[in-house]
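1st attempt posting a full record on here, be nice pls
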Amino acid sequence: MIEINITTKNKQEFIDITEKVINTIENEIQKNNISEGIVVLYVPHTTAGCLINENSDPAVKKDIIEFLESQVPKDKKYHHLEGNADAHIKSSIVGNSVTLIISNRKLILGSWQGIFFCEFDGPRTRKLLIQVIGKGT
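the predicted structure (as tokens):
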């Protein structure tokens, strides 16, 4: 398992981690001679998550954040007393893991797809855990 530290700067933000994840996974593919497999990205936090979506137009991540904020506003009266119930709900909606495929020694992502770390209760220092499972040629 590989651990990547991510420092967030805002209360809510989506950080494009595509290049960092691809480089990390490609190193593992080369080091372990993996030809086929899967990769699990996991965020071990209850107020953060990760997702795959378009990363060529920054308006997409802004739209997602604004939609989540409209559906789960910070100032609503929640039962959770720590003041971050909205962050817990948003991370539950987004999810805390994604699975990727390795085929022919390459990580598969669509043309417009990027990988985002989603912060809902920052700024903080967070972790992203990466598990590569595969077989060699």
